[in-house]
Amino acid sequence: MSEVPGELKYCQSHEWVRKEADGSLTVGISDHAQALLGDLVFVETPEVGASFAAGDACAVVESVKAASDVYAPVAGEVLAVNEDLADSPEAVNNEPYGAGWIFRLQPADAAAVDALLDAATYTAHIESEG
Q1: pLDDT tens digit sequence for 74-113
Q2: Rounded to an integer, what distance in angstroms lies between the CA atom of residue 90 and that of residue 97?
């Protein structure tokens, strides 16, 4: 069973989002997603300062099995990326909700986060995928 922390928001495309005290959002992929991908060998992070619309592909995670896009959970500008992933992409496997975060986003509309899935709804979503 995948870990789904209750304090985070989620996308159906398996990104997680944590609201930070300064209003920014930290984004990564869920425990479920990293388990499906298997051992990650490369993470392509977005450029700091780049702006994305909700649902835009903005990063790539590559495993021994496949490469998968990571999508912007809401519209916004990239404030920071996890540069440690260049040398340690396995951090996404080992700590998907901690050291494996991928980027930080300044949302164009802070309320847009409220429309994302809560933990219970995301859990039901991944269970429905089988």
Answers
A1: 999 999 999 999 999 999 999 999 999 999 999 999 999 9
A2: 13
8: number of Cβ within 10 Å: 20
Question: 65: alpha, beta or left, given left = phi > 0 and alpha = psi -120 to 50?
Answer: alpha
* Euclidean distance between CA atoms 66 and 22, whole angstroms: 35
Which helix or strand (DSSP H or E) is residue 62 part of?
strand 57-63
pLDDT of residue 62: 97
Amino acid at 51: S
Numbers of helices and strands, H then E, in the chain:
3, 9
pTM value > 0.85: yes
Domains along the chain?
9-99 (2.40.50.100)
Tell me the one-letter amino acid at 53: A
